[in-house]
UniProtKB/TrEMBL annotation:
The chain crosses the membrane at residues 7-29, 49-69, 81-99, 119-141, 153-176, 196-217. InterPro entries: CYB561/CYBRD1-like, Cyt_b561/ferric_Rdtase_TM. Residues 13-216 form the Cytochrome b561 domain. This is ascorbate ferrireductase (transmembrane). It comes from Vigna angularis var. angularis.
């Protein structure tokens, strides 16, 4: 399904929103939550790696991977490698991001996997992994037969958008959950930190909206097309 509109202005808005979401999450974690650390007495700093790697890695890299076919006027084979590489980076950073949430829980003596957010989070990363491996094997190496590729492509695109939207929804739940924890331990409900976290979640959702719109828009002419003329 295509929207019949050019992707170009939409992809620019998507890039800008991705940068803004990353900057906002960093401003929150560094200015209000004490920064990020892999090892520290203050276990909250270990937790802080989780939202950063998820937003910057899984969501922003994942979204950029999805729109790579629409954002870059390059040869199809080059775009395929960019798509695969960005998704690989998103998946790897997402796995490390989830690991840090477990690390924080384990080092703080908090139970694992008790929330809807965590259950959906496991679902997202498992589905993302399956989607990446299937795409690699069918479209890259060793590659499926032309019939299998033709059959798989629309399902790959649909399933990819589904997993991405689920990831954005799960991240939104994560922001909500963290802010609710903070507010229940005294954080001002209308204070600047609460507004920043809610606003960061809204920008993340808008990034997701523009990724989906860009994915449904028309790609720019590829370098192959110019060569063919
Ligand atoms: C697609 C995005 C995300 C995924 C896949 C994800 C995944 C997970 C998983 C699997 C856990 C459970 C760790 C454990 O039980 O030890 C967790 C915990 C947590 N995450 Fe996320 N997360 C995402 C985004 C976020 C974001 C953006 C925030 C914002 C602060 C966040 C906040 C939390 C919090 C507060 C916990 C600890 C409480 C709990 O287990 O629910 N998450 N996350």
């Amino acid at each position: 399904m295509g929207l019949g509109i050019p992707a170009f202005p939409l992809t620019i808005v998507t890039h800008v929103l991705g940068v803004v979401a990353t900057v906002l999450v960093l401003v929150w974690l560094v200015n209000f939550r004490g920064g990020l650390a892999w090892e520290d007495e203050n276990k909250q700093l270990i937790f802080n790696i989780h939202p950063f790697l998820i937003v910057f890695g899984l969501i922003v890299h994942g979204g950029e991977a999805i729109i790579s076919y629409k954002a870059l006027p390059l040869k199809k084979e080059v775009k395929k490698v960019v798509h695969l590489g960005l998704h690989g980076a998103a998946l790897s950073l997402g796995i490390i991001g989830i690991y840090t949430a477990f690390k924080y829980h384990n080092e703080s003596g908090i139970a694992n996997l008790y929330s809807l957010h965590s259950w959906l989070g496991i679902g997202v990363i498992v589905l993302y992994g399956i989607q990446w491996i299937y795409g690699f094997v069918i479209f890259f190496y060793p590659g499926g037969t032309p019939d299998i590729r033709r059959f798989s492509l629309p399902w790959h695109a649909l399933f990819g958008l589904f997993v991405f939207v689920l990831a954005v929804g799960t991240a939104t739940l994560g922001f909500l959950e963290k802010l609710t924890f903070l507010e229940s331990t005294g954080l001002d409900k209308y204070g600047s930190e609460a507004l920043l976290v809610n606003f960061t979640a809204i920008i993340t959702i808008l990034f997701g909206v523009f990724v989906v719109l860009s994915a449904l828009a028309d790609a720019p002419a590829a370098a192959d097309d110019y060569e063919a003329i």
